[in-house]
Amino acid sequence: MAEQLTGLADDRALLGRTSTAERVSDILRSRIAEGYFPPGTRLSEDSIGGALGVSRNTLREAFRLLTHERLLVHELNRGVFVRVLAVEDVEDIYRVRTLVECAVVRGLGEPPYALDGLAEAVAEGRRAAREGDWKGVSTANIHFHRELVALAGSERTDELMRSVFAELRLAFHVVDDPRRLHEPYLARNLRILETLRAGDRDRAEELLADYLDDSRAGLVEVYGRRVADAG
After folding, report:
1. Cα(32)–Cα(163) distance, rounded to whole angstroms?
2. What is the pTM of this model?
3. Mean pLDDT of 126-148
4. Which residues have a Cβ under 8 Å from the Cβ of 222 and sit 6 or more positions away?
5. How far is 191 from 142, CA to CA, in rounded Å?
């Protein structure tokens, strides 16, 4: 916990003089997504509030916001914890992803498409893989899908999927072999990018739907086994 709190103290400068619960929740959401606070971790109000230099009320409001986003859970008489997903949660996350991401591709309109963000995410993933940084590959993969969703040009959709992707990473942090989980999708990200560059929106949607179905099946298998072993 000491290392995590040191990192939070570094984030204190981000709050500035206009500290708000929303900004605190943004910081904690990022730290949870990065794995600083793994699933099942109890979050201490005193320690985190002290590290960020915010009031107890502000921190409690941030906790409430993140609980609403399904990243935290409040357990009576025990405190606030980073949520541990059930297998059913993982399956539901993928249902939402398929509905939204495929709809985004389907609604792209006529090419050419603004694909610079997707291309950078692909390059980011390949760099991380060359360095053996599989956590970085996971992050790049999430960036790829966030950039894909951003093609819709909808702030509401971006906000919805930001929470969905943050929740998804709770499952990723439990997996004990991230390379096996993420490496196969580097090539598939590139293929979707190239298909969109060619202007073939329909084929890109087919590739994406198959991709998400395979990703769901693989993660559910691995995650379900880990949860069962932990139980």
Report:
1. 12
2. 0.85
3. 95
4. 175, 177, 180, 181
5. 16
At 201, the amino acid letter reads R
Buried b or exposed e, range 59-86, using 16+ CB within 10 angstroms: bbbbbebbeebbbbbeeeeeebbbbbbe
Cα–Cα distance for residue pair 223/231, rounded to 1 Å: 12
Token representation of residue 76? 């009576």
According to DSSP, residue 41 is labeled: P
Q: d(Cα 204, Cα 197) in Å, to the nearest integer? A: 10
Residue ranges of alpha helices (H) inside the chain are 2-11, 21-34, 45-52, 56-68, 87-106, 116-130, 134-150, 155-172, 178-182, 184-197, 201-230
| Cα 8 → chain centroid | 19
Least confident of 42-46, 60-64, 224-228: 224-228
How far, in Å, CA of 143 to CA of 122, rounded?
Answer: 9
Cα(205)–Cα(35) distance, rounded to whole angstroms? 31
